[in-house]
Design brief:
Elements lengths: L3 E5 L3 H8 L3 E2 L2 E2 L13 E5 H6 L7 H5 L6 E5 L2 H9 L8 H11 L2 E3 L13 H21 L6 E6 L4 H11 L6 E4 L7 H13 L10 E4 L8 H8 L6 E6 L4 H5 L1 E3 L7 E3 L4 H4 L11 H4 L12 H25 L3 H10 L4 H16 L1 H7 L21
Parallel strand pairs: 1-10, 4-5, 6-7, 7-8, 8-9, 9-10
Antiparallel strand pairs: 2-3, 11-12
Helix pairs in contact: 6-7, 8-9, 8-15, 9-15, 15-16
């Protein structure tokens, strides 16, 4: 049985800490060394930020001293290319640069997909333009690839079955090592389950060449159980998902409380306004145990934000481990999730997956239609994808 693994997506704030080789109370501020607060075995970095960020001009893996026995995943930089284009700017990242940089740095790489949408509903025209650009990039990645020790993943987009079919039919014949799923919105458990089942329906997981399944940019409380449930249906593939949400600690000084509680604490400028009577940290994770004085987290230096981010990251890892430990006994799994007020859509996604396996995806989308967006499209109208 496969398990879903949480992959922290690297933030530039942490990269700055690593560049300076900072420590706190004898702990390495990284999260993968013997001197770290905790040791995690996988991380993700975007090609764009690796190539143009804190470690510009360096090999990223060597720059952060990331060991060979741990897994380094790279995002191809397509999101940044689309973001720059939206602003009317050109991103300093070519397809061949993305491929070569990934080959020189990582263990798991991604094809350079151009996402159909960033922050709004795309038109059908937007979708087709993104698909054409992505296919051109995929052809280059397939023909110019040099490092076959690095796994290279195909990418699937599309928020309806019809859109998934259009995208899949255009990319399915490329010779890669698995798939990354980029369904939107990333926090919607039913949409993620539908993407998973689309590849199941097409027999992708039965192929010996399929080594790895990744879910892009998702890690929320209500979607992680669905990812774990999907992973439990596979036997041989590695399943991962990433997000940088933990880094809200560095950006806003937001401190996550355990997932079975829910609310957050605020530090820095907001501390005296939102939770001034808190005098000790409500957590015994390895990071919090290393902090002697809660007011350390109210300082403006780089240590405060980094410690909060590491604490947040540990919460994601712990939650991931919890759902993976329970997922194989469905009644206990659901009992636990109900106790932490999990969304009903998450629970419905389990039944959706089981029904789709037994009866097919088409019947499943009809049966669970109320939980899904419309599954028909009108190619003649230039409205949003959600309207189709």
């Amino acid at each position: 049985m496969s398990k879903a693994e949480y992959v922290p997506a690297q933030g530039e704030q942490l990269s700055s800490v690593y560049k300076r080789k900072l420590e706190y109370n004898g702990f390495d501020m990284k999260y993968w060394t013997k001197k770290s607060h905790f040791e995690h075995n996988i991380m993700l970095q975007s090609v764009y930020y690796a190539k143009n960020g804190v470690f510009k001009g360096e090999n990223f893996r060597e720059g952060v001293n990331y060991p060979k026995d741990k897994t380094l995943v790279f995002d191809s930089g397509g999101f940044q290319i689309a973001s720059f284009k939206k602003k009317g700017e050109v991103c300093d990242l070519s397809p061949i640069d993305s491929l070569r940089y990934q080959e020189a740095n990582c263990d798991i790489g991604m094809n350079l997909d151009i996402p159909p949408t960033l922050d709004k509903v795309p038109t059908f025209s937007d979708f087709n333009i993104a698909l054409k650009q992505s296919v051109d990039n995929f052809k280059l990645f397939e023909t110019k690839r040099e490092n076959y020790k690095m796994q290279l993943l195909n990418v699937l987009h599309g928020e309806t079955i019809q859109h998934q079919k259009i995208w899949y039919d255009a990319v399915k014949d490329f010779n890669f090592d698995g798939y990354a799923i980029g369904m939107k919105p990333p926090w919607d458990p039913m949409i993620q389950a539908m993407g998973f089942m689309y590849l199941w329906e097409r027999g992708e997981y039965d192929k010996d060449s399929f080594k790895h399944l990744h879910f892009f940019g998702t890690s929320g409380k209500h979607v992680v159980p669905t990812l774990a449930y999907c992973a439990s249906k596979l036997k041989k593939q590695r399943v991962t998902y990433d997000s940088s949400s933990y880094n809200i600690g560095s950006i806003f000084r937001t401190y996550y409380l355990p997932y079975d509680i829910g609310p957050n604490l605020s530090f820095g400028d907001k501390f005296k306004i939102q939770n001034p009577k808190i005098t000790s940290l409500p957590c015994s994770c390895p990071v919090c145990k290393s902090i002697d004085d809660i007011n350390v987290l109210n300082t403006k230096d780089i240590y405060a934000g980094t410690l909060i981010s590491l604490h947040n990251m540990f919460q994601y890892i712990q939650y991931n481990d919890t759902v993976n430990s329970l997922v194989n006994q469905k009644d206990k799994f659901i009992e636990y999730l109900k106790k932490i007020n999990i969304d009903k859509k998450t629970l419905a996604s389990f039944d959706f997956v089981d029904f789709a396996i037994d009866h097919g995806l088409e019947k499943a989308t009809k049966k669970f239609n109320n939980w899904l967006i419309s599954q028909t499209i009108d190619k003649t109208k230039q409205r949003g994808i959600w309207d189709y």
